[in-house]
Amino acid sequence: MPGSDSRFSGGRDRRKAERRQQQRRVRERRTGLDRRGEAGWEAVTLETVSAGGVDEAGLVAAAIDARTRARAAFSGFKVGAALETAGGEVVTGCNVENATYGLTMCAERVALYKALSEDRSVFTRIAVVADTADPTPPCGACRQLLWEYCGDIEVVLANLSTVTARLRLSELLPRPFDARLLK
Fold first, then answer.
1. What are residue 151's phi and psi, to 5 degrees?
2. I want to staple 167 with a disulfide (CB 3.0 to 4.6 A). Which of 35, 58, 144, 171 is the partner?
3. Domains of the chain as residue ranges with CATH
């Protein structure tokens, strides 16, 4: 490139290569390549927070902020979600209710659909926040969609003041239905 300084492009190329390698590993986990030989699933509790572009507190704070925009006129149960991409970006969502309830969209799906529609496809973790003392995990529909598009990502559950649980998605959806079963 005319006018470019090779001292700076080498570091940029190395970062791009590292990012591509991380995305490949996440994609392999997401498509099940590292689990094809297993007969069953074994839950793995997270003891450490995964490294990424945002620390856990920032991810939870983004979910808390998203929760403030929830449309929960019927149930009053507001939820916020923050989905982290492999590149360290955060895409948020909140629940949007409908009088029929069946057309209600959960915060996790709103964040996922926003991310997918903005051409993001590799994810590392999601934070889900509700104003409850106990952990509030994603519903079954959200678990299925998260599995298909995100794979076995980290799920951070929190309330308005603290993290209440850290899990792998495989703990919440231990025997998922996915593309492997359609072959």
1. 80, -155
2. 171
3. 56-171 (3.40.140.10)
